[in-house]
Design goal:
The protein is 33% helix and 20% strand. The chain is α/β, with parallel strands linked by helices. It binds zinc ion (ZN).
């Protein structure tokens, strides 16, 4: 029998309480005041959340292994543990897309005994059919990274009619508008808000037509789009929404002043205006947006700085740094050109949440809702194990994200565990510190 006793202040989405928790063989068995001498005791400067979950990440590994140079399941787990994340859900657009049971079996076998719990999405692409296994699905309405996407609403409808009632997550961008905007100057102009809004209209209609249990990924736009979703929900659909830390922290108003940041923050859908960003923060706080999900995309710096490859001898980021000093106008021009979309964000998941608390007045329970309980509810239905994720209660997994809210963390490149080896938040000081990550009774990370 494997047993663990923890004492401190525990935060669920619906309550905060102090006391002790006993974990036996990975599951929470007892909650009380005097269960015994604790293995770990945390004073009241610390808070113990249910283990956090990131339900949208890219781990890049597949049977072919061609992208293991930038991440694999092991380094993905290291980054997650370092980010306070005990469970992740991995997207299917690897070089060999996960679109059938055979490939699902390969991934399930590969992740079966890893320290962090990993759930795989199956991809929906032109001509695919649902799998016999119960899995979450992912649809790309427009091209992002990889070949798994649709070019028209008609093509999408033809495929989606087979997925009636299934759990489907959507990447919402319209192919035609992306194509028409290709040559524009900056990433937000090449992937404008209209491209999300146009696709959103037909995506919501398809969700209603095929009664999908839908989720909208990495939401980037404010008011107008949120109004459309509100109307859709009023029709009786409980479609949920993710938002990425990047879209909550950076915006194009900042990038107009500092275009040299573009290579570090380019992702799809694009960042939008400050107004959009503040709308997203408000919607997350009031519970309209359901999840913080990073869209962790571990591309290397060489891939991010692809526009700087040919202008010097050194590595592309060094060329960039040199040009930043010697010819800032040219540097900025190259930064605005198309690089590689996606940013590594698993390492900073938990500390980012402390910024929302300190800067935007989120309560501890708000954080437990968007980082723990909602993600836990999302993944639990797909696992066959004995417990549940997302809450500190009997019958749930003994998984915890333990933080000190008053001790700041400076994000530094050398600390990043993702194989990509960098973070868009480098140089940022977040107000809190991650002390410990525990999954199913096992300590994955200890930074006390
Ligand atoms: Zn993604």
């Amino acid at each position: 029998m494997n047993s663990l006793l923890i004492e401190g202040t525990f935060v669920n989405a619906d309550q905060i309480f102090s006391g002790q928790i006993r974990v036996v063989d990975g599951l929470i068995t007892d909650i009380g005041e005097n269960l015994g001498t604790p293995d770990y005791r945390f004073d009241d400067t610390c808070v113990i959340f249910p283990g956090m979950g990131d339900i949208h990440i890219h781990a890049r590994e597949d049977a072919g292994g061609t992208q293991n140079y930038k991440e694999d399941y092991d380094t993905c787990c290291a980054a997650a543990s370092h980010g306070g994340v005990v469970h992740v859900a991995a997207m299917p657009n690897t070089p060999e897309p996960l679109i059938n049971s055979e490939r699902l079996a390969w991934h399930r076998k590969r992740v079966a005994n890893l320290s962090v719990s990993i759930l795989n999405y199956a991809g929906v692409g032109p001509g695919t059919k649902p799998l016999s296994e119960h899995v979450p699905y992912k649809v790309y309405t427009g091209p992002s990274v990889g070949p798994l996407f649709f070019k028209s609403e008609t093509e999408l409808r033809e495929t989606l009619q087979h997925y009636r009632g299934k759990p489907v997550s959507f990447h919402v961008e319209d192919y035609d508008i992306l194509k028409a905007s290709e040559g524009k100057k900056t990433h937000d102009q090449r992937r404008p808000k209209s491209c999300v809004l146009t696709a959103l209209r037909y995506v919501l209609a398809l969700i209603e037509e095929f009664d999908l249990k839908a989720k909208l990924c990495h939401w980037s736009c404010g008011k107008e789009s949120l109004e459309l979703i509100k109307e859709h929900r009023a029709n009786g659909f409980d479609t949920t929404i993710e938002v990425s830390p990047l879209h909550l922290y950076f915006d194009t108003d900042l990038l107009r002043e500092k275009p040299e940041l573009w290579p570090y923050v380019q992702m799809n859908p694009s960042l939008q205006s400050r107004e959009d960003r503040l709308d997203l923060i408000a919607a997350l706080k009031e519970g309209f947006i359901d999840f913080i999900a990073t869209d962790h995309a571990p591309h290397t710096l060489d891939e991010k700085f692809v526009q700087f490859k040919t202008i010097g001898e050194e590595n592309p980021e060094d060329n960039y740094k040199q040009l930043l000093v010697e010819d800032i106008d040219l540097c900025r021009e190259l930064c605005c050109k198309n690089g590689t979309s996606g940013t590594p964000q698993l390492d900073t998941y938990a500390v980012f949440a402390t910024w929302l608390i300190a800067e935007h007045g989120f309560t501890l329970q708000d954080i437990a809702r968007v980082c723990c309980e909602n993600p836990g509810n999302f993944v639990t239905e797909f696992y066959s194990g004995p417990g549940k994720f997302g809450k500190i209660a009997q019958g749930y997994y003994g998984s915890f994200t333990i933080m000190n809210l008053n001790e700041p963390t400076l994000v530094q490149r050398e600390d990043i565990k993702s194989k990509a080896g960098w973070s868009p938040f480098e140089g940022v000081t977040f107000p809190g510190k991650l002390l410990m990550t525990i999954n199913k009774g096992d300590v994955l990370y200890d930074n006390r």
